[in-house]
Amino acid sequence: MAKIICLLGASCTGKDTIYKRLLSDESLGLVPLVTYTTRPKRAGEQEGREYHFTDEDGFRALMDSGKVIEDRSYDTVYGLWRYFTVDDGTFDKDGRNVIAAAGTLPAYIKLRDYFGEDNTCPVMIETDDGIRLERAMRREKKQAAPRYKEMCRRFITDSEDFAEEKLKAAGVTNIFMNNEDLDKCIGEIAEFIRNLSGN
Prior knowledge:
alpha/beta
């Protein structure tokens, strides 16, 4: 039986890089569950790869059609940004494992409740706060118009959102550290997925 492997982690834990590397590992046979956002595209992002980029009207149309599984909205210093997951037929419990960069605990919980606990598996990526902050600064400096206030707001919010008691309450026990050795972290998660799939 296939599962949705939900990658969780605060900003700058390497979640997006890990997601891409796991997806490119053909031995894992993963299918991507690409989420949607109304935030502007960052430098280097492509439609349908990191996200499906849309606007408020696009979000409303998908909501009205009953296809939105979960959505999160952030009142940023640049306006309202939404992130959401759509049931577009990607997951088939008799098909291949699906990997989703679920991001937040509420997103994972809604995916778990929608698809069922037996069909979902959370994978939490953790990184030392100092390393996360350094990565966030480096990433923001590369942007054409750096958004430092938003970076700080998100850093603080993430620390609260991924508190130990919240992880425990959500039943998240598969935790992998990504401080200095990215390859080691990816290798450990890949092995976990292989064992999950019985490969």
